[in-house]
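Lesson 9: reading folded outputs for more than one chain in a single document. The general rule is that every protein is listed as its sequence immediately followed by its structure tokens, and records are never interleaved. Here is the first one.
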Amino acid sequence: MMLPTEHNDPINARILAISEDKIEGFVREPFQETARRSGVAVDVVMARIAAMLRAGTIRRVRQTLLATNLAHGALVAWKVPDDKIDSAFNWMFQRDPFSGHVVLRSTDTVTAGSDYKLWTTVKVPHGFSLEQHCQLLAEKVGAERFRVMPAKGIFALGVGHVRRKMIEPGDKADHRAKMLPVQTVELSERDWDVLLALKRELSPEEIRPSPWRARAEEAGVSLDEFYRIAEELNGRKVIGRFSTFLEHLKPSAGGVRVTRFNALFHWAVPPGCEVEAGGEVGRHRILTHCYWREAGPEFKNVNIMAVAHGTDKLRLLDHKAAIDRHLLSSGIRVSYTNVFWGGRSEIKPSEISPKAYREWITSRARKVAVRS
């Protein structure tokens, strides 16, 4: 029997409301936990997730990491000539394993930074230079300038598109969001073996009980040892969530869209107010991401950024207006604000392995040597 695979099917929606971003940390039996919290039988949960993954409704199922603690990461805005923008987009997405989100963004009017149309997330393992990597990318794609904006603090990080469809403008948590600081965590070779096996996407065939058994074999450890290391890494704040990522950028096979618009909100608040302002912005439930990032004079010194998704542009602007009013009522002065709208987008997990980076650099050096 053919199972329903659209995200808005009632049973699928119940599963996705949990599985998108509510399974925090490392969980030994993530599908069983999804079943418990959604009220849907575990065999149904596994069958539906596998069916949605095969149909493309779900892009990927994987254990996420708090990669900001494992690699030097940043949001990077690129100023690229219009005649090179498509080729630059394609190169970042297809050829650079250390670029994750690749998005073309625009503003409704010509504003500060609106000539920076290509935006990417970039991660480079500790021990290597993020700035040098971006310089290499700039030379490769013909970028005229770039602005590197590492996260100094994280106030919101999740997905939950199905759950957020019901959120009203101004809906927020009872308390200010707590900032998660960015810190460096050093790992042993065995830690990396487990982590790399853990983070790889699950295939439809792996949507089953004890999904980590084969990954433990891959890492060369017993299942008990795999659990021990994964739980220790969870305690060291390098494990994110177990998530089912919806294909929210493109319509499903049946023509159904999860979202149509994604908005990158910018606010410039006085220096010294970033933690307070980020906490007040980050408590709004519509936001999937909220960071303290320093954007510099190119963007009128914006320092708080957040992302929201929706099917209606005006509705997203209503959410933005509600956040603006809340900041004003909280006594936080905003000297400048803006919205960058997402257009063409591709998303893939960034590679963060030091070994993979060394191999990539060596491969590039060989290609340069061959050409010369």
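And here is the second record, again sequence then tokens.
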Amino acid sequence: MFERVAFLTQVSVSNAGVEFGASKIFGGITFTVGRGDRWGILGRNGSGKTTLFRLITGTHQPTEGIVTRQPGLRFGLLEQHRDFGGAKTVWEAGAGEFADLLALELSLAEQAHQLSQVGESATAQMMAKYDRDLERFDREGGYTFTPRVDAVLQGLGFDAEKARTQPLEQLSGGERGRLGLARQVVSAADVLLLDEPTNHLDLETTRWLEDYLRNTDKTVLLISHDRAFLANVVDHVLHLEGGSAVPYTGNYESFVVQREERRLSQRRAYEKQRKVIADEEDYIRRNIAGQNTKQAKGRRKRLNRTPRLSSPTAEEGSALGLRLDVSARGGDQVAIARGVTLGVEGRTLISDFSATIQRGDVVGFVGPNGSGKSTFLRALMGERELSTGELRIGGSVEASYYRQDMAQVPMDRTLYDVISDLRPQWERRMVQGHLARFGFSGDEAQRRADTLSGGERARVALAMMVLGRANFLLLDEPTNHLDIESVEALEDALAEYEGTILLVSHDRAMLEALTSRVWILHERHVTDFPGSFTEWEEQSREREHAAAVTAAEQESLRRVKEHKTTKRRETQGTENRTALREMRQRVETSEKEVAALEKKIVELTALLEDPELYTTREGTDKSLRAGKQLDEARRKLDKAIEKWTKVTEQAEQLSAM
């Protein structure tokens, strides 16, 4: 039994602690990671989550305690700073450690082209090299690896074909983040350590990653503030708080329940000890100089040695002190869009969009990254020009805009000055008190904003927004960089807010909790769904089904293409020309059948991906019928590909005779 447990245990952390100079990051952390576990590493910003990852991989050593790892264990660490080595193209960067196989595949394609050009003049050396390289490509998993890279890139929002030639330098910061994630997912690592993997993902790619992590046999440790993502993936939680960490077994919902039970138990023990201490101190005061002085001194000595329990509210108290008030009720029509067409650098992002946001609405605005949601918010604030149409904020409406890049925080000012500029009539203690509610106490108020981390800047941006007392909030990914406790505090404040909200977010838990309407941006068209995000997800289950079928279909077709690309050079004999010609006709017929079914799947998928389809009962019924047709087309495609593979192999055998 001991040997089996030892084999299943991949990482063991025992009483580990880390200090940097006089600063202690954490101490006394103990937990064990078993093969196939999926751990969520939670805690406030600055609690040491990233440092813990480095202890696990061995890049940092603990100041105290020990970290042991299974011999030969391979780690894949996704950090927030991406390094792609010497990769030149997107595909090469995504392939990571398997880039050599990519080079071999390209070499094979080039050799096959040369052999077809020279025909019967091909030398024995040319044929031998091609055979050796093809055998190596097959032996090292070229046929299985290449489709896997393509599938991962496709799942994370890249065009797998375009990625083969697209220069890496063309990618934006968000795209590089997704590519770094693809690189780790593809790797042969036994343990994946993912630091905020959903930061650059939209809703569709986040769901794809969830499915992958649920079904992989790799061990996963992930740092995330996305509660829905955690709920759908993890089966263990390590919560860093109070300078140490507590491991929990079970999913995220189980952790939330256990955490509250633990805090309640701590609070009861703390209150009980405080009462005992108060009683003892009262006895000592009354008897220290009297007849029972000896007993009083003994009690005082024992009391001084008693370890004091800390209040669990100390950790809770550092959460954001958020309350969002409005200074005026505002008009009934908060924002108006009429025939809005919006573009950037000649590319249309949104076409002919009309809608009105009414007072009290909470509108969730969702769509793929880079589709134009942030650009729309900037246009609504008057910072970008429209191609056509009208877009404006209503009368008596005061808007506050939380930018995704937090550019509203002036970098050349101290935090004290930032708040003082917004409230010049406030005394020093009031400015410092406001900053303290957002986690900046004492001397931290004199820090310049350009020295802050992403999470700290987010808290300053929220501290500024609170002072605006606006009746219309435009929020662009407000949960980015916030820890879970801060996200929960923000969600609670927004739930109690009496104004109107336009929320761009990929945080499904927040969208589910708050929204009364949903705008879905898809292929330059915005669908105005008259219901909550939860209702939208229920209506659009067929869209997810279509995406899954499409992914499977694309992978099958990629395998077909790989087989075509790397197959052996055909040589035609004289005796079997008639049979070969007939077989080639069968191959051509099979290819046409595959192409026709592929076209039908594309058409059905496009229909099912249109958000407008799900806004009416008739559309929902139509989606169910289309979903069944999609399943049938997929089954036929599987059989057609199987048939094509068989006749192609027969044709190759005849060619080689």
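What the second record shows: The first helix runs from residue 2 to 8.
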